[in-house]
Amino acid sequence: MVSAVFHSPLDASLSAPPSPTLPLARAEAAPQPLPNPAAKAEREPRPRTPIDLRAFWMRVLPPLAGFGLLLLVWELIAVNSTTGFPTPLAVWHQAVTVFSDPFYSKGPNDQGVGWNVLSSLQRVALGFGLAALVGIPAGFAIGRFEFLARMFNPLISLLRPVSPLAWLPIGLLVFKGANPAAIWTIFICSIWPMVINTAVGVQRVPSDYMNVAKVLNLSEWKILTKILFPAVLPYMLTGVRLAVGTAWLVIVAAEMLTGGVGIGFWVWDEWNNLNVANIIIAIFVIGIVGLVLEFALVKLATAFTFEEVKS
Asked: Who is most buried in 47, 98, 133, 309, counting CB within 10 A?
């Protein structure tokens, strides 16, 4: 007699061991992470950029050679001079003494080189600022309106070649003072580059821009601020740069004639004292200050110049 044994499904599930194939199947089905190229690139050593020594030396050696040639010629002149012309080493020792206290003040006619430079820069700033207030709007007007251009072009052509120092007696006569006369001289020499460059910039604005302004019926103020000013800005900054350079050149000669405090007067006073070393120091100071002004304005003009104008 055969007996059948029936098992409950619950008992079968409890007694059956877990299948080992299911986790393996899930593990095989899981996607493998892709390699990260950025991490691989970080692990790999980056190749070092080789230093272009030739370009470096070509930037360094020519200026050093130029200064070396200047010092050599200077030394030869000083050695062969019979008038006591100072050597570069003697001027260097005197410069150390002068710049050890550049802001001393022992009276109106005996002040340090620092005060003299600041006084000259103050005169240049006042004369140049007045010239910019007059010259830049005048340049816009002359370039914008043909009648004004025909009216003022002969006057500008007549007065621009006149030496700025020729205007100094007029300033002394009108203003009755040396300081206003020097500022007047700076004003006269600074105004022409700004007027001419601004007017040329306005005249070179593309005619398409002005035609669009006519179609849109823009006001003269809109034309000035939205069309002319952005297009003329590079030319205007070039005129400003030229004006500052000219003003710094003229102030030295003007101060030699007017006296007072200033780098030009300092040069003339040292000549009266036969101190040639201080005169040479003043020459280098004038050159360095002019170079700094030129560099600052070139950077300013480059920042506001369009690429097509730069090229």
From this structure: 98
Cα 142–chain centre separation: 28
Which token pair is 167? 């205007």
Q: What is the pLDDT of residue 225?
A: 83
More confident residue, 176 or 52: 176
Encoded tokens for 226: 């939205």
The set of residues, in sequence order, having a beta carbon less than 8 Å from that of 153 and lying 6+ positions away, is: 142
Reported pTM: 0.72
The mean pLDDT value of the chain amounts to 81
- For residue 285, how far is the Cα from the chain centroid? 19
CB-based contacts of 194: which residues, under 8 Å, 6+ apart? Answer: 131, 132, 135, 136, 139, 236, 239, 240, 243
